[in-house]
Write a structure and sequence with these properties.
The complex is a heterodimer of chains A (183) and B (533).
Chain A: E1 10-11, E2 37-46, E3 49-57, H1 83-92, H2 97-115, H3 120-141, H4 151-154, H5 158-170
Parallel strand pairs in A: 1-3
Antiparallel strand pairs in A: 2-3
Helix pairs in contact in A: 1-2, 2-3
Chain B: H1 18-23, E1 40-45, H2 52-69, E2 76-80, H3 85-97, H4 103-114, H5 128-135, H6 146-157, E3 169-175, H7 178-192, E4 200-205, E5 218-220, E6 223-225, E7 229-233, H8 239-245, H9 278-303, E8 320-324, E9 327-334, E10 339-347, E11 354-359, E12 362-366, E13 374-382, H10 383-386, E14 390-397, E15 405-411, E16 426-433, E17 441-444, E18 448-450, E19 453-456, E20 459-460, E21 466-471, E22 478-483, E23 488-491, H11 494-497, E24 505-511, E25 517-523, E26 527-532
Parallel strand pairs in B: 1-2, 1-3, 3-4, 4-7
Antiparallel strand pairs in B: 5-6, 8-15, 9-14, 10-13, 10-15, 11-12, 11-14, 16-21, 16-24, 17-20, 17-23, 18-19, 18-22, 22-26, 24-25
Helix pairs in contact in B: 2-9, 3-5, 6-7
Classes of the chains: A alpha+beta (183), B alpha+beta (533).
Chain lengths: 183, 533
């Protein structure tokens, strides 16, 4: 018996929630292109045991400590989305490119909130955009979709927390949203 | 008259009540549609440091669920935004002091807890950040913060005339710490505008409070009020509220008990592990229950009677338009029952006269003794508070028999006041019209005076072509003298001027005593008199 006998392996990974900060390229993975997603990679422990771990593919690498060093963070692929947020979004919606796209747009708007927290007009415009993305996300994944779940990951340092709070200060009131057209 | 809200209720067809409807199909009939209750303002009050996106989303879902589960047309669903930035900063600073290795996860967890996900930590006994957050659930601290003052102001403004002549009723739908604000808004209004107290209700959702604000039926500030209508819904499995209830930082064991019937059937998945989120854990699985509570409160408010259902403004009595001279002249404007906005315009001209406006001995407005010129007053006449339906206007004319005065008294009701332009200081527009071939003549008035007062110049072209001046009205026709000693034209193009003389004219517009625009035309001269009626 060897590792290729998958049918005889014990897939305990399916029962274990493990989110490893394993970035692309992973040693076990060939370079891939395409939709960012989560791949479930069996890791043989012995002849009878495999552990399945989720691995992000087609996403930027975990920026590590560098990602928290500045207010703006790291955007290694220059797509306007902070790398750590981009990875988080793929984890939230691993097989839904449209949901990822809406969440990426939401992440861009949130990032703008942080970077422009002193500008009331910009923050208001960002939240208008966020409201639209939330509406579109609901249409895609269901009514309980919550793009605001990004906030804890957005505001994950002292400086970012203060910038986020400053943005909240900028808007003394919010307007009730209306219907939107989804891109 | 008030509407029974439940008459218009749709039978809910969400995933939770569907089985009930299938079993008891006969109960799932189409209900009679109720008349719209468009005189309600419904406000959503968010918890502390909710992301604005979440606040917006919650308000939208509330609006959608109202439309889904109720046929009532609530005209206005809005937000009372609980900004609470100061508290957030306190928490972040506390976190800063307690910052450990791996700060990124630390702050992520902080913000997760701040968003209500108390299940992110059960280390409440030792974690200073969690303790700080939980301590925010102390309802005693929610007194007259800037947020609260702003919220009270908004409820007041949009619940009272003239902004909302028919929307005096308010329902506050509060989530989490927003319930503290809802309670304090009611308390604040009791002190500021007790008329509104019986017209406000609260529907608490996931409440960490120990009470829903209410006032015992009786009197507040000598004004009879009915108890504030209030109710609440809290899930028994709401992790955040259960955690708060176990602490000594807030209301603890005195927190309002959970709603035992608010139980999600097994097998219903949730994206909110804390079972605390307004949309995911309340409005989506229990939207019909929340709407039912809103309807219940709406019915209670309607039952409070006339205090919350002010009659539409009644037709005011015949307006008073009068003029006179020396002596005392009393006038009575029969306003009738209810509250009316009233305007009084009084023109005393050059010889001083006096005016006093009163009701049942209460002075509502007056000139400062005998005064000259124009005076205008707008005030509220409330027959119930004044104890009379009549407004008394007393004009005291000057002993000088040459005095003249003019008075107009009317309500600013839906038909509009009849006291208008004729009493305003007359505004006169003067234009110089230059009629000749272009680029041949340049005409100007030079510096002008009107009735001896300098008023500037008119040049055409280029430069000013319109000038507005105000004239104090006099009785009857007014004669005014316009002097323009430097008035004249200069030829710009000798050849072009030949055969094409300038034709400059003054055009003077004003409104006559009836408010009708009048146009006077006169040639450009160094001095002329004109008459306005």
């Amino acid at each position: 018996m060897n590792g290729s006998h998958v049918n005889s392996s014990i897939w305990i990974g399916s029962l274990i929630v493990i989110v490893l900060a394993v970035g692309y390229p992973h040693p076990a993975l060939p370079a891939q292109s395409g939709v960012p997603t989560v791949a479930y990679i069996p890791i043989p422990i012995d002849d009878d045991l495999n552990i399945v771990i989720p691995v992000l593919v087609n996403v930027p690498p975990d920026p590590g400590a560098a990602g928290s060093a500045t207010l703006a963070g790291v955007d290694s692929n220059n797509n306007g989305v902070r790398d750590d947020l981009e990875r988080r979004i793929v984890q939230l919606y691993p097989n839904n490119p449209l949901a990822q796209a809406y969440m990426n747009e939401a992440a861009k708007a949130y990032q703008s909130v942080l970077l422009n927290s002193a500008s009331v007009a910009t923050v208001v415009a960002d939240y208008t955009r966020l409201t639209q993305m939330q509406f579109c996300l609901e249409r895609t994944v269901g009514a309980d979709a919550r793009s605001a779940d990004l906030v804890p990951y957005l505001s994950n340092t002292y400086e970012r927390s203060l910038a986020y709070l400053a943005a909240l200060t900028a808007i003394e009131t919010v307007n009730v949203p209306t219907q939107f057209v989804c891109p | 008259m008030y509407h029974n809200v439940s008459m218009g209720r749709k039978m809910g067809i969400n995933r939770l009540v569907m089985p009930t409807c299938l079993v008891a199909l006969l109960l799932c009939t189409v209900a009679v549609k109720a008349a719209p209750l468009d005189d309600f303002n419904i406000y959503y009050i968010n918890g502390i440091d909710n992301d604005p996106l979440e606040v917006l989303n919650s308000t939208r879902v509330l609006k959608e669920q109202l439309a889904r589960y109720s046929n009532i047309t609530f005209a206005n669903v809005d937000v009372l935004y609980n900004q609470s930035e100061g508290f957030g900063r306190d928490v972040v600073e506390t976190a800063r002091q307690a910052e450990l290795q791996g700060a990124r996860d630390f702050y992520t967890r902080l913000w997760s807890i701040m968003r209500g996900n108390m299940s992110a930590s059960d280390a409440i006994a030792t974690d200073p950040v969690v303790q700080k957050i939980v301590s925010s659930f102390d309802e005693k601290s929610f007194v007259l913060t800037p947020d609260l003052a702003r919220m009270i102001g908004k409820v007041e403004i949009f619940s009272t005339p003239p902004n909302a002549p028919r929307r005096k009723k308010t329902i506050l739908v509060a989530h989490s710490q927003g319930n503290f604000f809802a309670n304090q808004i009611v308390n604040g209004l009791i002190a500021k505008n007790s008329d509104l107290v019986g017209c406000i209700g609260i529907v608490g959702v996931a409440t960490p409070a120990t009470f829903v604000a209410g006032t015992p039926a009786g009197t507040v500030n000598s004004v009879p009020v009915t108890a504030v209508s209030g109710t609440y819904l809290t899930r028994p499995d709401d992790v955040a509220i259960n955690l708060i209830a176990r602490t000594s930082f807030a209301g603890g064991a005195f927190i309002l008990p959970a709603t035992s019937t608010l139980v999600v059937p097994p097998g219903i998945a949730s994206t909110d592990p804390a079972h605390h989120n307004f949309v995911a854990s309340y409005m989506l699985p229990f939207g019909n229950r929340v709407v039912t509570e809103i309807e219940t409160v709406a019915n209670q408010i309607n039952a409070n009677g006339a205090n919350c259902n002010p009659p539409p403004p009644t037709a005011c009595g015949a307006p008073i338009h009068s003029a006179g001279s020396s002596g005392t002249s009393p006038f009575i404007l029969a306003i009738g029952q209810g509250t009316q906005s009233v305007t009084a315009n009084f023109e005393a001209y050059s010889i001083p006269d006096g005016l006093v406006l009163s009701a049942n001995g209460v002075n509502l407005a007056s000139t400062n003794g005998l005064v000259g010129g124009y005076h205008s007053y707008t005030f509220t006449f409330d027959s119930s508070k004044l104890g009379t339906t009549n407004l008394l206007a007393t004009v005291t004319g000057n002993a000088d028999t040459n005095t003249l005065w003019k008075l107009c008294l009317d309500c600013n009701n839906l038909a509009g006041s009849t006291c208008g332009p004729s009493f305003q200081s007359r505004s006169v527009n003067m234009t110089m019209n230059f009629d000749t071939v272009a680029n041949t003549w340049l005409c100007t008035t030079g510096n002008m005076t009107l009735d001896g007062q300098a008023i500037g110049n008119l040049d055409s072209p280029p430069g000013n072509t319109i000038k507005t001046v105000s004239l104090t009205p006099t009785l009857g026709a007014e004669t005014h003298t316009l002097s323009a000693p430097l008035a004249g034209c200069t030829c710009l193009n000798r050849l072009g001027c030949i055969g094409f003389g300038p034709n400059p004219k003054f055009q003077i517009t004003y409104k006559d005593g009836a408010g009708t625009p009048v146009l006077l035309t006169a040639p450009l001269t160094k001095q002329f008199k004109f008459v306005i009626q």
